[in-house]
Amino acid sequence: MSRLRATLTEWRGLARSLLLYHGNRARHRAMDALYRRFLAAGDLAFDIGAHVGDRTSSFRRLGARVVAVEPQPGPMRLLRLIHGRDRNVTLVEAAVGAAEGYVTLHVNSANPTVSSASGTFLAAAREADGWRDQHWDHTLTVAMTTLDVLIARHGMPAFAKIDVEGFEDAVLAGLSQPLPALSFEFTTIAREVAMRCLDRLAALGPYRFNLSLGEEQRLVFPEPVCAEAMRDHLATLPLRANSGDVYATLAATGPRAAQNSIFTG
């Protein structure tokens, strides 16, 4: 694919993303209700893998300040258009991983939301039903930072959303202290990534877990569960479940933490 054709294909993909992620008010309401469990006005949130910024928009509707991190130039241009004039949003054009440096990003021009820095994830996708029509047609070398560096520069977030297509375990490898609350994406074609994320979080602190499937914006369990129970649940999900987000909160240590640790309501 020529670079011009790839660029045109990417912009069509981004246009679809804008319509899908920014054009559904009912989805926005459900998303805000979910994230309100973890964020209040004035809190700091990290949006790791911001893509076209629908989560950043949700965090801002809740009154949170946001650090939005995205390595792809196309989505970053859209983020600047949507959020660039908002003084409560800091945009960082970079990947996030285990160490500072550079990483190769595999770009899916037609569907940029599944661009990934994980070669293992791409290999799994190429062999999986439902993913074979996805094509990663070129690569970019992008700067990479870490969660620890972002915290040092911007402060401790009340919540961090991590959605980086099979690179979530690398993101958490660059974190040396527990966050109050976070989410990470999982896929059923690369469950081992989620298992490593659970292991890392268990090593960092006394986390409890819930999950939301796909883009439902609803938590599955009425009460949070331990890492082992979440591991068992993820292992038994059917392949057709495809993806979702695991939510983790530290055990309650005070009134606000107690509120955040409750996944019901």
From TrEMBL:
Domain of life: Bacteria
Methyltransferase FkbM domain ranges (all copies): 47-179
Keyword Methyltransferase among record annotations: yes
Matches recorded under InterPro entries: FkbM_mtfrase, SAM-dependent_MTase, SAM-dependent_MTases_sf
Entry's Gene Ontology BP terms: methylation
Sequence intervals crossing the membrane: none
Name of the protein described by the UniProt record: FkbM family methyltransferase
Naturally occurring in which organism (per UniProt): Chelatococcus composti
